[in-house]
Amino acid sequence: MPPIAVIDFETTGISPGQGARATEVAIVLLEGGVVVDRFQSLMKTGAWIPPFITQLTGITNAMVNAAPAAAEVMAQAARFVGNAPMVAHNASFDSKFWQSELQHAGLAAPQPFACTVLLSRRVFPDAPSHSLGRITDHLGLPRTGRAHRALADAEMAAALLARMQRELCQRFGVPWPDH
Fold first, then answer.
1. Which of 60, 75, 165, 169 has the most CB atoms lying inside 10 A of its own CB?
2. Three-state DSSP class for 68?
3. Is the per-residue pLDDT at 69 higher than 50?
4. Which whole number is the average pLDDT over 125-152?
């Protein structure tokens, strides 16, 4: 089974179309339901981080000012992902930042994206919430670090995806693919 790249961004705002930029990216490669590799980096875009974002994420302007340039980080991230399909919790958000930050770096963003929010709503329709923290808690999945930090959120989204893959295999009597 080829790897799936599960990604999460922390950003300065809601939309790159409104001038928001990424502050941190993390990607975990998931194979057969197991995380096999990780990529994480803060990134320097020159964008100012509002205080409420710092309060939410813990990422400060000083941290990103000391980070590698966004173009360098995104080139590394693109090499790390390769041709793997992408998954994110709220993919409409992360895919826009993936495309925007790669465009700023002069790179293509050809990968298709799938969304664990949309999938969790169908697989677990009775869950009280489909926000990443609440759905992982509801399913008894481990929290892997501080919420709203890219690596912790990417790892939780990967665990959620693997749980949903196993659930669907069991529910429909489909054997788990070995490779």
1. 165
2. coil
3. yes
4. 95
